[in-house]
Amino acid sequence: VRVSRFEGNRAHGIFFQMSDSGLALPQVGATLADFELPDTENRQRRLRELVRGGAAVIVFYRGHW
Amino acid sequence: LADYASLYPSFGAAGAELAAVSVDPPERSAAVKRDMALLYPILSDGSREVIGRWGVLNAKEKGGIAMPSVFVLDHDLRLRMLAVEEVARRLTPGEVLRFVVAMHNAQDADQPGMRKVRPGRMFLRALANAFRHGVRASRV
Lengths: 65, 140
Fold this sequence. Notes:
Number of helices of chain B: 5
Strand order of the largest sheet of chain B: 1-2
Largest sheet of chain B: 2 strands, parallel
Helix content of chain A: under 10%
Mean pLDDT of chain A: 78
Low-confidence stretches of chain B: 111-116
Distance between the termini of chain B: 31 Å
Mean pLDDT of chain B: 83
Structural class of chain B: alpha+beta
Number of helices of chain A: 1
Number of strands of chain B: 6
Order of helices and strands of chain A: EEEHE
Oligomer: heterodimer
Shape of chain A: extended
Helix content of chain B: 40-55%
Radius of gyration of chain B: 17 Å
Distance between the termini of chain A: 27 Å
Strand content of chain A: 15-25%
């Protein structure tokens, strides 16, 4: 088990990171670029729309590809 | 995905929208969404663009798939939380929810930024393991 780091209380609130330090992951606290991906009805969904209520939780899963 | 489904209303109450992402085409994801009766959207990243940009592409498997991982972004598209399963242990949906609720409450608090999320059981266990087995140098 490898733990890279834990960050709390930086700048404007709560930050947390639990990840493999070997990956080219975005920095916690960084602003990410918007994206647009199709949903199951082939409608394009923007990240900016998903966060509109205050936050978005994006869960990546392996899938069956 | 099913675990998140049961907590979906709670995420909504904390102002958070949920979305799952994989490399599967929309038709395939539609079947998953239907079979599991999911209310949140499943997005398809067939080109691996976002998966690659966010650093969670597992190129070794099946022509490139997403590593199981969770990202929490705030209203300004700022990355607030990041957990990749491969490494430490999987963060449970309940723990992610606790984080989002704390984030939500911190927004309403008089002194935003002064709240601290309490590390959960998983984190403490991972920390204990880190002490026991060592920590690989962090590339910060």
